[in-house]
Each structure stands twice: as structure tokens, then as C-alpha cells.
Predict the structure.
Amino acid sequence: MRYLVAFLFSFRLFALRRTTGFLIVLAILTAVSLHQSLSLEKSVALSESIPQKTLVDAGFYSLKSEFKTIDPIVIRISKLDESAWTEADLCQLKKWHNESLKITDFDFMSTIFDLRTPLVEDAQAGTPKLFFPALITESCTSSIADLKIFRESKIQKIFADPTRNSFFSYLYLRPQAEDAKFDFRRIRRIVNHIESFKQYKISVTGSQIFQMYAKENLDRLNLLNILAIVLILLLLKCVFRTWKSGLVLAGTLLFSIVIVRGSMAFAGHKVDALLSSLFLILAIAVAQDLIFVFDEIAKKKSSYLRASRKLLVPSFFTTLTTVIGFGSLMISDVPNIVRFGGWAAFGALLEWFVVFVFLPVLIKKFPRIGANLVSESKDFGRSLINSKLHPILTFALIIPVFLNPVFMEQLKVNHFIMDSFISSHKLSKITEEIRKSHGWENSINIVFEPGLQFEERQMLLEQAAKIQGVVYVSGPQLLVEDVKAPTYLLKFIADQVYETRWGKFFHGKSEKIRAELFFKVADSQGVSKISEAVNEICKGRCSASGEIIAFARFSRLLLETLKDSYFISLFLVGLLMTWVSFSLGQKNLWIYLLTSAIGPSSIAAVFYFLQIPIDMITSISLSVSVGLAGDNAIQYMFANRHYKNFSGIEIRGLGSLTATFVMIILCLPLFLSDFRSLRWSAVVLILGFIIGFIGDYWALKSLLSIRKIINFNKGESSNSKT
């Protein structure tokens, strides 16, 4: 450790002796990073978050290249009072569809007015005659009583709910180039146009609508981040009695974010659901380091330069625990998880550099920045720091540490991508409406190989329809099932349907045919089971394909990565703490290790008992908990070098408590997000921060006191024998 400490102090001294040149370099770096960060793109497409190999295995790319359209915008239309449709209503609805088709962004719209049903005239006298009358006549003169064919046809499942009080239309956009970016403005413009017709109750859903709302909510996170900064300013004003302390923290955070985002843009990476949480992670890291410095200034009435110099080394080691926590994610086979782990680790190192090198250089050059930075607060948290934890509660907190493997092993992925938003969100409402009215929750594609005979396709679809959870299998074959005719005529009917505008959706470029399988399963495990059952039935003649299958496989991969990185990072943090303990000559290492594991273990327990679904966002909570494990313990170890009877723990306790309050406040704005996962993450992190502090501070003091009493009694017993 001696050489590492010498290097850190030498590097800091080198910067302090060359303040002007150092600041010029940082100013240039900041300007370049800010310019680069303005071009940083957001990634909202689900396929961009899933590994390419997983998409290939799930047939996503072949499905996309084979069929012209794979993800239409689904429009659900009903009357404002949800009552039955009359003849006049249907005529008005048809006019609305015709007006909507004037939008140039449309390729075509598939509606109930395009559907035709095959009818075969009695063939006793000769060759059967085949008709394709419209389910709803072109002149729009049929009455509701004349729609008996539509009501009895199986095809109505695709375009209407069982009561036929609401209808579905499928809007297919003009295809873009393969490398075209997701056009957020285009989708928003179309949605605004569709929802502008107030005479109907209209809802839109589909993959592209999900991406649109995801993009809007990622943008909204920026406003929530501003709110978090405002709350921090208010808290630090209460604790340290100055606005300057909060402004310095906010400035440090913003500078770090600009550098990280600029570096991401330079590397060609995009901001996805994972990387959007970097603000929170960096804010937690900055708060951990700066608040200990502020607390040292308040206690010793020293300058920022002296306080930061004293905490330079212990804070470097606490930063290393954060780097380990997030860096362990880089063992993953998932590219976006590797990127997230790498950038989070880089951001943690960067903020340490800013707090302990850049800020001292800036303050030395401009002393007024460091003047009157904090004012001692004698009241905040003092009673909490001086309180004690009952031994029984201490041992109760330790129990989850030993049950940690059980909790992690029982974690399961139970997540449906369309459930990403809170229940009051528009997309969640339409999803729930479909579940209630249609009985299905999701769908996948069944793609048949070229040359497969009509009879064999029908047989395979009949078997697929019997899979547990499947509601029905849609496609042109539904029309054929209602017709009583010879097999050759049924095959001819099917071929004719595939040539219609609606039927082309199911007919590929290389003569592949597909069908859609709708099922009542809303989680990744259920999707995997159904897709595996389909492939078992197909035996190479067809296959289950689609983005949702790739997502289900990715979810399992995410869970495996999370478990591996969790235990690896805990082990590495334990090794780091052991090295620090032996280097400092500290005793009672096992107590420090045990209490430091309470925080991560409590978060694993929260996931287990509350059955919180594991996804890309909620999984961050475990990485954060491991990154913070050992932070307080390492600060206490360094502080105890200068004080007797473990009083260094109480010296740093107030800083730990303040940092915990700040981290909790940083999570509060997440409750305003429309992402369900972000709200769950806020719940988990807040509980983890609270229990983690109780373990790091009170449980540590309690166990050390018990150990001290035991050692004292042993010594007294030994003396009496002597």
C-alpha cells in the first residue's frame, strides 16, 4: 500500500504545482466533452438492448428481412360509451379510416372493411363456385343483422373483441432503410393525428408506440435529475448551513456527467435504459466522497485542501469498491451490460479525481471558492449517531448475510416489456384493456419453411393452438377453417388470401408463410416455455420467432450475469477490505466484513420477499449495493488509526449518516417517473441505504462492543487464575 499512497499524493502534488496548465487542459477537455455530449443519441429500441446472437437465435433478423412489416401500430377503436355499433356508426368509422389513409407516412392500414370471407356455392350440380364477399359491404348499407358472417367468423378475433364493441385496425408505416434511426417525431406525429379524432375512444399500442413513450420518459429523466439537485441543495443547506456546499456538489456532479457523456458519444455509444441511470450512480458516488470532506471541514474547521488531503487515500479505496461493483458486470456476454459496467466504473474513478484533484487545484487558483464552504452543524443527526442498537436486532440483521445465496438463487425474471410503465400510463391501460376484452396478452410468430404443404401447415397450427396458455392462432387460415370445401379448394382459397393487402402480411419474400400465436402469458418465463413448445411441435419444419422471444432469452441471461457479478464483486470487495485492514494493522476484520455485507444482503432479501421483477433497471440496485459495500467500513478503518477504542467510527458516523440522507433524496424523484422499474428501484435502494447504514454503523458498533466485553471477561478470568 505504501507505494500506492505515495503515487496518489505525488499525483495530487504534481497537479497543485501546475494549476494554470492543469486548468487549461481541463477546460479544453470540458469544452470538447460538452460538444460531443450534445450529439449523444438515445436508444429506445428493444432490439438494440438485446445481444445480436440472441436476436439471431430467436429469428428476429430473418423475420425482419423476410416479411415486409413486423411491428404495426395497433389502433383500438370504440364508441365513447363503449356501446354496440350501429349501421351509421360503421359508415362513419369507414370514413374515418379513409381520411386517416391520407397521411403520407402510411403504407397501408388493415381494417375490418378490408376483410372478405370465402363462400363456396353448393357443388352438387358441377364445379363449386367460389365467392369472396366483403364482411361489411362496400356501399356500407348493411345493417347489424346482416353482419352474422362477421360475428361467426373466427377472423373477427383479430379485428374485434368478443362483444364487437371495439375494433382493431393495424397501421403499417412506409418501410425505412435498414440503418435508419428510430424516427421519434414521425411516430409522435402519427399518434397525435390518430388521437385527434375525439368522436371515438381511440388507443394505440405496439412496439413502436412503446419506443415512443420510452423516449419521452428518458427525456423526462433530465427534469427529474434537476429536481434531485434542488433537493440536495436544500438538504446540504440544512446540514452544513451554506448554499455553497450544495453548489459545489452539484457542480462536481455536472462536470463529471459532462465528461462521461462526452466520452460515451466519442466512443459511439447510445444512452439506453441502463446508461440513463448513470446520473444517479455518479450522484451517489460524488455525495459519498464530498460529504465526508465537508464533514471533516466542519469538525476540524480546516480548509478544503487539508480535508481532501486527509481523505484522499481512504476515499480512493471506497471508490475502488464502487469500481469493483460495476466493473464486475463486464464479465457479461451482453454488450449493453458490459458498456454500462464500464462507464459506471469509469464515472466512479472520474468523480474521485474531480473531488480530490481537480477541486483542490481550482480552489488553490481561486481561493474564494473554498472560503466558508461549510459551517458546523451541532444538531443534525447527533442523537442518531449517539444511539445504540440492541444486540438482538444486531444478530437479526446478520441473518440475511448467511441466507444471501438462498435469496439470490430464488430470484426470477418475471417481466413483460409492455408492463414497463405504471398502471396509470396510456400504454398500460390499453394493454390491460386488451387482456380483459380479448383474453390474450402477447403474441409470437410461427414461420413455416418454404415448400411446406397446406395440409401440413394446418396440422401444425392445430397442434400449436393446444399449447397451454395459447388463446388462438391467427392468420388467413382462420378464414379457411370456416369453409366446407375440398382440400384443393381450401388451398386455393388460402393462396388467394395471401395475395390480398391484409394477407401479404403473412407471406414472405422467399415463399415463407407465417402465422401469429396469441397467448395468455405475460412474463418472460412463460414466453420461453411457449416458444420451446412450438419448436418441439415444428421439429425443423417451422419455428417460433420474434423480438419478444429474444427478450425472454435475454432476461434469463441478465439474471445469470447478475448472480455471477454479485458474488464475484462481493468476494473482491472482501479481499480489498482485508488488504486495507492488514495494511493499517486493524483488528476485528471479520466484524467489518460481516456488517458490510448487511446492505447488499438486505437488498437481495427485499427482491426475494417482495417478488420484485428483475429487469435491466431494477438489477442496477444490486450493483449499487455492492459498490457501496465496505465504503463506510474503510473510512472507519482509516479513522481508527488516529483514535482509541474505535472512536473513529463515531467521528465518521455523522458523515455516513448525512451521505445516507443525500442518497435517499437522490432516489425520491424516481417516484415521479412513468417507468415502473424506476419506482421499484427507488423503493429497493432506499430500503437498502437505510438497512445498510444500520449495519455499517450501529451493527458494527454493537458487535465491537460485544467483542470488547468478551475480551475483557477473558482477560479478567485469566488474571484471576494467575
Q: What stands out?
A: The first strand starts at residue 73 and ends at 79. The two ends are 41 Å apart (CA to CA). The beta strands are 73-79, 106-110, 119-120, 130-131, 166-173, 200-205, 442-448, 470-474, 513-519, 542-545. The first helix runs from residue 2 to 17.
